[in-house]
Amino acid sequence: MTAEFIATVILLLILLDPLGNVPLLISLLRPLEPVRRTQVVLRENAIAALLLIVFVFTGDWLLAVLHLSPSALEISGGLILFLIAVRMVFPAHGHDDDYAAINGEPLIVPIAVPMIAGPAALATVLLTARQGTQLGTLLGAIVVAIVINTVTLLAAERLSRLFGKAGLAAMERLMGLILTTMAVQMLISGIKSAFLVAGPL
């Protein structure tokens, strides 16, 4: 197990934000029977995993079609991660209420997308594939991150009782701080590459 693999898993887990999604998931699946909730969580995570893997294989094609350079992708990815991190550290009230108002059983939206495989996660796997990460390492990291995310969401009710709303919010803010550092590093790397800055920034 390489450091690159572990770092990729950690980054994906922060972006998937399973603990932060626990309250919203409970609200969305409350009308369903317990057995059906489990089936929905498994299905939505499988869909999200498929989307992330598709982006790994279509990344080069998307860049070519959209005429994007790797540096532009890295800078924009860093900006997206930074905005996500700021929202994790300073959450906006009422954001989850829009999804919570959905009636019936959710399919793809909003659990698979954007709750799990959101724009930041999709952009990150695309960018990671472009940065030369070995295909097996990236695919393995996606699978491991999705498995951990699935297990966490399956235990949503228990985690909610264990940590409470305040505890879950505190953990999400901590992950936001870590993600902020990663986003800044990505921005530095992208700007350095785009403008051919010599030496360390």
Given as residue ranges, the uncertain stretches (5+ residues, pLDDT < 50) are: none
Rg over CA atoms: 17 Å
Number of helices: 9
| Percent of residues in helices | over 70%
Share in β-strands: under 5%
What string, H for helix and E for strand, traces the elements in order? Answer: HHHHHHHHH
Structure description:
- The chain has 201 residues and is mainly alpha-helical.
- It has one domain (3-195).
- The chain is 80% helix and 0% strand.
- It contains nine helices and no strands.
- It has helices spanning 3-16, 18-29, 34-66, 70-89, 97-100, 111-116, 119-130, 135-154, 156-195.
- The longest helix is centred in the C-terminal third of the chain and has 40 residues, at 156-195.
- It is globular.
- The protein starts with a helix and ends in a 6-residue tail after the last helix.
Short description:
The protein has 9 helices and no strands.
Task: Explain the layout of strands and helices.
Blueprint: H1 3-16, H2 18-29, H3 34-66, H4 70-89, H5 97-100, H6 111-116, H7 119-130, H8 135-154, H9 156-195
